[in-house]
Amino acid sequence: MAAKIRNSIVLYQPLRDIDGVEIRLHRTVLYASLYRADDDLLVNPHAFGITASNAPVLHIRHVEHDDVASIYVDSFERVWRSAQPLA
Predict the structure, then answer these.
(1) Rounded distance between C-alpha atoms, residue 12 and residue 5, angstroms
(2) DSSP for residue 83
(3) What DSSP element (H or E) covers 78?
(4) Are the CB atoms for 23 and 12 separated by under 8 Å?
(5) What is the Cα 83 distance to its own chain's centre?
(6) Cα angle for residues 12, 31, 87 (degrees, 5° grid)
(7) What range does the domain containing 80 cover?
(8) Overall number of domains in the chain
(9) Hey, CA dihedral for 19, 11, 42, 87, is it positive or negative?
(10) Pairing verdict, β 24-25 and 32-37
(11) pLDDT tens digit string along 23-82?
(12) What predicted TM-score, i.e. pTM, was given to this entire model?
């Protein structure tokens, strides 16, 4: 897993020069990978024995308070607050 994280950091490194892009690291065990852009979420649920690239990706739009996306947005925000900016 550490090698995958290091590889991802190298691949995403050029994005750090884009205004408004921030990369953070955390130690939280997650059950889905979340990708957020404003009110759009891509949720890649983790499934035992299935690589992330073969797992489904759900496109969820946050449109109202307490919708399905709110669960993922709240989860994302809790992890983001505790994460450390990439040095």
Answers:
(1) 11
(2) P
(3) helix 68-82
(4) yes
(5) 12
(6) 30
(7) 2-85
(8) 1
(9) negative
(10) unpaired
(11) 999 998 888 988 888 889 999 998 899 988 899 999 999 888 888 999 888 988 999 999
(12) 0.71
Return the closest-CA partner of residue 44 out of 14, 76, 22, 66. Answer: 76
Tell me the C-alpha distance between 72 and 78, whole Å. 10
Contact indicator for 44, 33 with CB cutoff of 8 Å: yes
How many of the other CB atoms lie within 10 Å of CB of 60? 19
CB-CB contact of 73 with 66 (8 Å): no
Place of tokens 């190298």: 10
Structure tokens at 59: 């496109």
Residues 6 or more apart from 80 whose CB is under 8 A from it? Answer: 24
